[in-house]
Design a protein that fits this description.
By secondary structure, the protein is of the alpha/beta class. The chain has ten helices and seven strands.
């Protein structure tokens, strides 16, 4: 049985991932399996794709919702990929990740799975990140657009990822061969952490964008009416006493950071922007602590 290539489509909320996937389905001639992930309880992206009935003629779609395949649904995602790999009629797999998923974590999990089970019939071949140029331009630079917009957007993207190929497109219209391949994904070449660090330094120098993190063990009393809180993963401190003990015995790092009152519970917030008052933000945050 031939190994099936897996293409991961990522991008922030509203970047155009589903538009691109619909365009891919219009061009794709192979028998395709789709995995569509949505953080919410209703998989809106899957519903949009289903409306395009003709494009689904040679496709099988699997919906994963109420979590992200990079963390809370990671095991279920790997299990689903493995099940798909056993279907002889499936020739390739496309995965549309949630808009808040970490593509680096998904890739690392997938590659770890390939290493643990080398006999698997699937392999990660490509990661495609969809970027809305207009939104990137407005959020990183200015509200006023001019003819050099795309060049400046491309420069910002290059700060984040200096080696990935950039394909300019409108309404997701792109030649499918330009974003798919049979080559195995080279994780080391596009290691996300070093690229992100390079981006933070570059953006700070050239555009006045900087960042800082806020960490505090004490919980917040309230989040405010314009904020929402959702479950992503459990705290060890929320588990029963026996399970807590087992976790602590097997994890030295967890033991060293364990708080007598709050356990491993901690607030961690990263602020990225420009022209902000760091001390004022921290002061306001501390006023929200319980």
């Amino acid at each position: 049985m031939n190994k099936k290539p897996v293409t991961l489509i990522t991008g922030y909320l509203g970047s155009g991932k589903t538009t691109l996937l619909n365009e891919i389905l219009r061009q794709e001639k192979r028998h395709v399996a789709l995995i569509v992930n949505d953080m919410g309880s209703i998989n809106i992206d899957a519903a949009i794709i289903k409306k395009n009935g003709s494009a689904l003629a040679q496709s099988e779609m699997y919906e994963m919702q109420n979590g992200c395949i990079c963390c809370t649904l990671r095991d279920e995602f790997i299990e689903q990929v493995e099940k798909i790999s056993e279907k002889e009629d499936i020739e390739c797999v496309f995965v549309e990740a949630s808009g808040i998923s970490d593509p680096g974590a998904i890739a690392a999990s997938f590659l770890a799975f390939e290493k643990e089970k080398p006999e698997t019939n699937v392999y990660l071949s490509n990661i495609v990140t969809v970027v809305d140029a207009d939104r990137i331009y407005r959020e990183f630079l200015t509200d006023l657009l001019d003819k050099s917009q795309l060049d400046q957007v491309e420069k910002i993207i290059r700060d984040f990822q200096p080696k990935a190929e950039i394909i300019k497109t409108s309404q997701g219209k792109v030649e499918i061969d330009s974003i798919t391949s049979k080559e195995k994904f080279n994780y080391e070449m596009v290691d996300s952490s070093s690229a992100i660090q390079k981006a933070i330094n570059s953006l700070s120098d050239e555009y006045g964008i900087s960042s800082f993190s806020y960490e505090y063990k004490k919980p917040f009393d309230q989040a405010g009416r314009n904020s929402s809180v959702m479950a992503v993963a459990y705290w060890v401190a929320a588990l029963d006493e026996k399970t807590q003990k087992e976790c602590l015995e097997g994890d030295e790092e967890l033991r060293s950071s364990w708080d007598p009152e709050y356990g491993d519970r901690i607030n961690q917030i990263v602020f990225i922007g420009k022209n902000y008052n760091k001390s004022k933000i921290i002061s306001r945050l501390e006023q929200c602590l319980a």
